[in-house]
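Customer escalation, tier 2.

The customer says the design service returned an amino acid string that "doesn't look like it belongs to this structure." They asked us to rerun it and document both sides in this ticket. The original structure tokens are below, unchanged.
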């Protein structure tokens, strides 16, 4: 996706067509009998809700994000219908607070700034930012320090923790903002960037999809906990999600899902 185009297109059509995927347009208000609406990062806006839901699912498959599988498990254990709502990354929290979604399941990392506005569940994955490079360039980065001191072109996704990290920790690099993770792989192949920095799960999936051309530098650049986000005024849902997460972890289901999607990465027990 070109995120700028996707957001602009969504903005043009939101009033006419709505933003919810496969559900009525009334507010998803989190009451006990209501469906659970899961916010996913927006791929692009389509006018048919069924097409949107399929596109959201395809995006999860394309970028190695296990949110669809986890969301279905959660909905089953909550005994509630599940609706995916595609939302641009920088609108995820606003959509949650406005009631358009009930849960953020978009691979969001826990930060102090975000925790001011929303409540996070216990982490479902300990990950971190990692780097994607061309296979032929792996030897150029034998250590984390060598990577951070590079003067090469470094790509990142705007308005993410990767954006902040690259701005602060790559003092010599030529910094190149990108719209989405798949653009990082494309930019590497086209040689418009030399390094792409993004969250570990996405890097792992991009490597698995481009093993002949691209490789991961499997030394985490930082440590991040990924968790689901809910409104602060919905403590009941937060508690139930934490209970479900604990159960998924205890019976091995969580490890199985993460292992299927993210075989390169360490998974907390």
């Amino acid at each position: 996706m070109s995120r700028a185009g996707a957001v602009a297109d969504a903005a043009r059509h939101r009033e006419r067509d709505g933003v919810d995927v496969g559900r009525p347009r009334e507010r998803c208000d989190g009451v006990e009998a209501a469906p659970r609406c899961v916010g996913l990062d927006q791929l692009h806006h389509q006018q048919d809700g069924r097409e949107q839901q399929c596109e959201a699912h395809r995006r999860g498959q394309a970028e190695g994000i296990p949110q669809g599988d986890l969301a279905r498990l959660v909905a089953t254990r909550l005994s509630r219908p599940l609706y995916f709502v595609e939302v641009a990354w920088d609108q995820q929290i606003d959509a949650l607070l406005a009631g358009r979604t009930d849960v953020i399941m978009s691979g969001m990392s826990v930060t102090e700034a975000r925790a001011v506005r929303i409540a996070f569940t216990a982490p479902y994955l300990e990950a971190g930012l990692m780097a994607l490079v061309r296979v032929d360039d792996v030897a150029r980065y034998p250590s984390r320090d060598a990577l951070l001191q590079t003067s090469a072109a470094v790509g990142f996704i705007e308005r993410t923790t990767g954006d902040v990290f690259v701005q602060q920790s790559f003092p010599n690099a030529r910094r190149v903002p990108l719209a989405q993770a798949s653009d990082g792989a494309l930019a590497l192949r086209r040689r418009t960037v030399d390094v792409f920095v993004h969250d570990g799960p996405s890097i792992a999936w991009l490597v698995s999809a481009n093993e002949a051309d691209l490789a991961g530098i499997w030394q985490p650049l930082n440590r991040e906990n990924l968790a689901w986000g809910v409104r602060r005024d919905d403590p009941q849902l937060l508690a139930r999600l934490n209970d479900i997460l604990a159960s998924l972890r205890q019976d091995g289901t969580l490890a199985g899902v993460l292992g299927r999607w993210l075989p390169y990465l360490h998974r907390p027990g």
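Tier 2 assessment: The sequence is consistent with the input. Residues 129-217 form a domain with the D-Maltodextrin-Binding Protein; domain 2 fold (CATH 3.40.190.10). The chain has two domains: 3-125+224-261, 129-217. Sent an explanation to the customer and offered a walkthrough call.
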